[in-house]
Specification:
Length: about 70
């Protein structure tokens, strides 16, 4: 991909971001959490939130109860 696009249009971290998103999309939706739970929306209607993957119950020890899987 780096050979096909100008450096100003595509950087190495863009490729890493795309790979992480692709792998994360393959996990069960039960393991995907968001913060905040009811996010505000931007002017285009997109939710302004952080989406993250919870590996297992041990990963949630310090997580607020409402975010627990």
């Amino acid at each position: 991909a780096l050979d096909q696009f100008l450096r100003k249009d595509l950087t190495r971290d863009d490729i890493l971001d795309a790979l992480v998103l692709a792998v994360s999309a393959g996990f069960s939706s039960k393991s995907i959490k968001t913060v905040p739970l009811n996010p505000p929306r931007d002017p285009k209607g997109l939710p302004m939130q952080i989406v993250f993957f919870v590996l297992n119950r041990a990963d949630t020890m310090d997580m607020p109860k409402e975010l627990m899987p």
